[in-house]
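ping. complex inputs:
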Amino acid sequence: MTDFNILHFDQLDSTNTYAMAHLDTLQDRQIILSESQTAGYGRFKRIWNSDAPENIFMSIVLKPKLELNENCPIANLTQYMSLVLCDIFEQYDVHATIKWPNDVLMNDAKIAGLLSEASICDNHLKGIVLGAGVNLNMSADQIQRIDQPATALNLVTGIQIDKDDFLENLLEFFFEDYESLLKIGFPAIRERYIQRIPFLGKRITVNMQDRTKTGIAGGFTEIGCLILKTESEGEVIITAGDVIL
Amino acid sequence: MDLNVIKKLVKLVENSEIDELEVQDEGLQIRISKGKSGMMVSASQPMFQIPQSAQPAPIAVSEPVLVPASAGGSEILSPMVGTFYQAPAPDANAFVKEGDSIQVGQVLCIIEAMKLMNEIESEVSGKILKILVENGQAVEFNQPLFLIEKA
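pong. complex structure:
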């Protein structure tokens, strides 16, 4: 994988933690890869199971020169990455779906999770760390120890997945349309994204820390936020939350 | 919100049957009310004055309802649309609380937009005078988050 600048570790606390701690010195498009993580995490520091070395634990450091404004596309990078993952899974003849904003599911079980972090000071974007955990090769036992419905690509396809091939594809696909996503934002992926969202038009609940909202998933705003049609408050725009199907 | 918009709003209230109109736009809150003494415009922030000569009707500009940021503090604004969190996780300690001293580069909060967790660092050192939004609240681009007294 000569095209990409990869920093490879046997073990880290988490690739995101490492990248955020070294954000000032890491280059744009630096990839941080670890065979395992001792403290992998997702949203709100929820544990991401990271002991299967044939899975992907990766962070991409991005330092685009962008002005921060109400349409800034940096929040759409994980949505874009979730689509890239779906496209790669198609090469294995597997159809994946997306749970807004960016969980990748197969048969309603999670196969990949994305969490990005950014550092902003004085309206200046210092950098973004796009973290991805992808379950490529796991045993049924390992899957059962995860506290939510989960799966791995080898279990769905019945074959061992070559991690290096997968990773190279992932990075190539990601950087292919990365620039156009930054230029155009969510509209660049809107149509393809919607096709991967089976819950549109259905009744869903969204958990938001101290409260929940229930309604019909109505669609997405121009910047990719979820529009929820509720009975009590009418249309509500959700910028962050966990969708419960 | 520019002055012409406010003028139009004043006219709207004046010529209508409503007595009071409250408008909020990009952190600026304006109340226009019709009283015996004429039209009244009050704004939460920032402080501004409407030139009376430019108005066909008598206009009285009242004292601002809230202390404006310009009265000795500076504001940290939200760099994006998202959800405001005071702490990295629901059960974790808040990054900062009112009265805390802060340094340049210190993380003050997280603004989440679709699982992009944006750590917002302070561009100044000083003291947190007021936290202007609630934990878990949706915020707009450029919405004031913190009022800071510069050191």
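The mean pLDDT of chain A is 95.
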